[in-house]
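input
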Amino acid sequence: MARKDGRLAPVASPTANRDARGRSDLRPTASPLLRVRRYTLAIVCLLTTSSWGVEPGRRDHLTEPVYRVSHAKAPTTQPQQKPMANPQEHPLVPALQFAKAGLAKLDSRIKDYSCTLIKRERIGGTLNDYEYIFIKVRHHPFSVYMYFLGPAAIKGRECIFVAGRNNGKLIAHEGQGFKAKLGVFRLDPQGMLAMRGQRYPITEVGIRTLTARLIQVAEHDSRYGECEVKWFKGTKVDNRSCTCIQVTHPVPRKEFRFHVARVFIDDELQFPIRYESYQWPSHPGGPPLLDEEYTYVNMKVNNGFTDADFQERNPSYRFQ
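output
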């Protein structure tokens, strides 16, 4: 929950103190008929349940605290708009230059990272609950491991995707209950089952993709007017000092994807660790509508991840 100063407050991890247990790679082989029945049952179950999205469970090696994000608020510091070198240039140009420099540093300095991703998305007009995921990301080849920490409905789910491997499939399994007995699934990452309840596929997870997408949107929006940009120094995300860039389109236009967007750039890491965007109010004078938000906490960079960190046979994982 949020503290009175609006910053993130840590809560105890639900994943600590799990007993270790060994596993063998030698598993009984089901008959062809049983596999067909199990697969058919799994498809029916998946079509009637929640998204493959994000959620958590228990983990031997995950001991970091999980953080909850307060409802999105404007930065508490007073605006300190960055002066433009050329008053005639579009107000997004300085932000674009800053973002491109950050992307270059990210590509040259960061090979991989682990963190807890906290996300919330509006899908089909409905704002979903917060979802918490422990993730590992490697940039080359692009590799993602996800372990879902919450909410309870999808807790314990695991997903793996590696570009150019596993026939391009997302490998996933449920974490608990009857669905966990259905085994491992290999899904098209952009197919109906994998995308159910998601705005973006697993192929677009991560900070580098977020940064590149924000640059693309800013380049598009810089072709139009009606854009206000403010810079806020000294904002905080997960107790880390950040610079917040706030972009506002006052009037709804078909050219614009959002009413207000805020990007929080970590002052030390020099890449975004939080993004939030809002749509225009549903009625005059009403509050902006939260559309999506993503926060990356407990960031650890350059861990030296290997192929083993993105394989379902990793003994630390729970693929069956």
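quick obs: The helical segments are 32-47, 93-109, 177-180, 192-195, 207-221.
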